[in-house]
Amino acid sequence: MGEQTSSVAEAALAALVHLKEDIEGALLDTAEGINEYRIRHLSRKQGQITALLKRIPDVAPEDRKRFGLEINAAKDRVEARIEEATAAITGAGTASAASVDLTLPGRTQAQGSLHPITQARRLITRVFENYGFDVAEGPEIEDDWHNFSALNFPPDHPARDMQDTFFIEEPGTEHDGILLRTHTSPVQIRIMEEAMKEGEPPIRVIVPGRVYRNEAISYKSYCLFHQVEGLYVDEGVTMADLKQILHAFARTMFGEDVRMRFRPSFFPFTEPSAEVDIWWKDEDLPGGGRWMEILGCGMVDPNVLEGVGIDSEKYTGYAFGMGIERIAMLRYGIEDIRTLYENDVRFLEQFS
Amino acid sequence: MIISTNWLADYVAHGLSADDLSERLTMCGLEVESVDQIGNDLEGVVVGEVLTAEKHPDADRLSVCTVNVGASEPLNIVCGAPNVAAGQKVAIATIGTVLHLPSRDNPDERVPVQMKKAKIRGQESHGMICAEDELGLGDDHDGIMVLDADTEIGLSFSDYLTRQGIPTTDNAIDIAITPNRPDAISHLGIARDIAALTGAPVTPPQVLIPESGGAVAQRMSVAIEADDACHRFVGIMVEGVTIGESPSWMKSRLQAIGLRPRNNVVDITNYVMYECGQPLHGYDADTLAGGRIIVRKTKGESTFVTLDSKERTLPDATLMICDGDREVGIAGIMGGENTEVSEKTTNVFIEAAWFDPSTIRRTAKALSLQTDASYRFERGVDAEGQAWAAKRAADLMVELAGGTIVDGMIDIHPVPYVAPVISLRAKRVTDIVGAHIEPSEMARLLEAIGFGVSQTGESPVTWDITVPSFRPDVEREIDVVEEVARLFGFDNILEPTHSRVPNFTPGIKGDRQLRERLRDLLQGSGFRETCTNSMLPIATADAFNAPALPGGRFGGESVQTLNPITTEMAALRPSLLPGLLKVMGHNQNHGQAALRLFEFGRVHTKRKTNLSLVGDYTEVESLILAASGEWMAQGWYGEARPTDLHDVKGVVDLVLSGCGLSDIRYSESSADGPGAWGLDVMIGKRWIGSILRIDDEVSKAYDLRDAAFIAELDFTALCDLATAGLRVRFTPVSRFPVVQRDIAVVVDASQAAGPMISTIRQSGQPLLQDVQVFDLYEGEHVGAGNKSIAFGLRLGADRTLRDKDVDKVVSRILSALDAEFGAKLRG
After folding, report:
1. ipTM greater than cut 0.90
2. Sign (positive or negative) of CA dihedral B751, B754, B756, B759
3. Residue A95 has pLDDT above 60, yes or no
4. Is 0.90 topped by the overall pTM?
5. Contact criterion met (CB < 8 Å) for B29 and A245
6. Are A168 and B561 inside 8 Å of each other by CB?
7. How close does chain B come to A314, measured CA to CA in Å?
8. What is the DSSP string of B88-141?
């Protein structure tokens, strides 16, 4: 039996010496060549090294260790060469680039997008955050007190008509009027009420949010839209400060050379009040453009400050409010406000 | 309100072009919305004399005329007017002239038409003999305009009009009047502001106001029984008037501001209202029973026929004007049919009163009837302007309707006007405005618009400001500050070069930070953000007010508005789902099959909870993910694959780990909703949303072509839970390698993977770091009714693991799986 096993080992080792020529010498410059090399040596059924490994049990015990080491070394060598050669041909498109079609398009990834109202709101809030404004939010279902009374709207103000405001509960009933807020200004009151619980001004905050108006739907008005409200209450706040911050805002949104003007206007909760227009260039118009209203603003009415317990002799403040849709429509050249709420993918994908 | 620039020029010689005027008005708070040029200069229209006018041989209604326009040869003109006759002086539009003629489709609209040589039924015509409407002078098209007989032939028609005091062109400036400017709803009111801005004086018409009493007081008596609502009633009588047309100049002014001329008396009352802002009413004095006027309120509901022949239902306590027998007008809103001025009227009683603004506003609202009069009374007319206006109208009636004024005036004035005096500090003005304005300049600006200024202090400068009677809106110091600021000019306020920022810490709210982070994350995952309407039909809101969705979770009713625009928008959304389904249907019908959408938005329910801020309503923010169609498109690299629930589940995992949340649990949804089947999403024991495969019936209703999968999460609850997760704490990274072991087990084909993963997690402690399902197999190799699940296990510790440590854990896992699920290691 010893004779036998010893001869098995010798025959095998002899075969291995013969194999080594191919193991070291085979030309491995194509994927096919590498594959054939792998099959020739390592495949389960045809591999010559596999075959030698299967013969280990037949080798005499005293020879087995040496025999095993030899064959395993040969196997490692084959694997190393395959790895090396594969790396060489798949590596950065050198000689073997021919085997990869580099002109095929990349694998498609689904593309997402943010709604233009979100994008405009982010731009707007970022400007004011840079100027040290906090950001707050408030409820869309609001009470008559915060939406109107606390903002110095007289009891029979036309805005309180059913024509303009969606009511949920009528004034004079249990909760004395609940409605869908018509502007983000009620959040001013909530913020000041909250601030006065803890102390005193300064208050410096902007409030983005959805608001509702009971208006017929058309290309220029929808039953809801989004506003950003701003409020700064402190000692020594003036209209000059208001002009400055809004000018900084307009420059960011519409360019360094933006022309803007402050027109006296009227809001119940600010006095003096103003509307702000920017000059919108349009070569097709007679004057080369026109003034476009972008926001309303003013100095917080003393009645509003006193109503929440702020001393209107010590503190003054400014407030402003703008429609996000209006800014977005101007920036992106959207003409029909309804486009914003239709959410046609062909529209949304333009904001990717 | 529309003003005419020609008319305005009567009261202030401002010397400004229409555009400059508009700019100045806008910048002092009277926003100009539009400027329309009216009429044209009528170039090419000349005065001619009709030499002959013969009947057209082939047309009964036409005449063939020869007209001398001062040229060597007379012109041949075919004319259709019935009143054309030889010897008339007429206005001729010669060839080449452009006239703005009323459009055939819409008589209120004018279109430019150029005169051309024409043949009309075989007869040559070299121009047109014009009617008033063709010249833009009125609506009259009954016949050609016949000019004064002594007018010279060949005179340009615009010169003719100028001699008559009628300018050929005018500008209609439409001004948006804010509620704080009742003084500016008239030409004189606007003139006051223009005068203050330009320094030119205001020149109102001269009116001599008669003494109270006199002969008129013998013929009419006035009693005010509701002096809370009527502070003053002035009456003047004009007798012997002849009702007729107003002169052209008055008609063209009224037309310029959009009013239709009626007759001289009615036109005069309108004219004076637009001149000074005081509404007037003219009664046919002979129809006023008993020579009496009583101002009183109705008792109980009643009806009344206004002069537009409509029967109105009056609520209780409506302020009415009555005569000896009956009601004759709704005070401050509209007169009655029973006493209106008619063609037969000879004696007119003019009413000029002051009515309480809120009384008139309430009535106008109750009747849904807004008139020029109510518009002015609601805002507050000049408390001292009644006598001037009544006498001004009477003077015009004498001039234009041939009447005579009955001596004296009735002036019942139960509540005398007291001018408010307001204390003003110069420093307060600069503190608010932030610009340096000299006190003397402040005083000058206020005096220019009629405020009385009396200095009360030198250092600091203070004044007593007397408010003029036409500015009822000015009640407080801040109102006076606004007047100074507006006249000083907001554009003259210089911006500071530096911005003061208070020394406080702006907080960054977690929910906003989280929302923006998730927006970016979802965009990066191929989802497109939508923005849908919050308002739905009630039936839709009710259908989606389901416990499987964030709003319906609270178990309240849908929130409805009392006054929806349409039934399509009568309720507030309890879920973002119906909005997204609509968007998906729209897009799939417009060729976009593969959809991945998301939206953040508030949802509402009527239920008092600890989240309620207002009334019995709960408002939370929801986040919805929705996908339909192919998740993977077919490409050269692989086959297409439709979206399934696990795609959405994977994104939910991403969202929740993006919130820093762990302990995410899913369980089969049992709650009712629009889903065919789905999962509840829990963080620990708290429900935060659902993942649903939308029921086919629902999909069909929304016109969806492919199955839709959605996840709707209560974002408010997520924020609540995520607060701690947002604060990232660093954990040292292990220096030791991890070990990967794969196991495949065979279980019954119905066995769910979820519980097995939980068991692996538990029994793999403390070395097991992660477990994945990397393969599922059913088929011949595992036997019928069985399946193989392959788990990838990742193990590690703060030391190098030895094989036997790993083997021990793996065999513990295997025996636990065997014990609980009968799972056998796959051979």
Report:
1. no
2. negative
3. no
4. no
5. no
6. yes
7. 11
8. -EEEEE-TT-EEEEEPSS-TTSEEEEE---EEETTEEE-SEEPBTGGGTS-S--
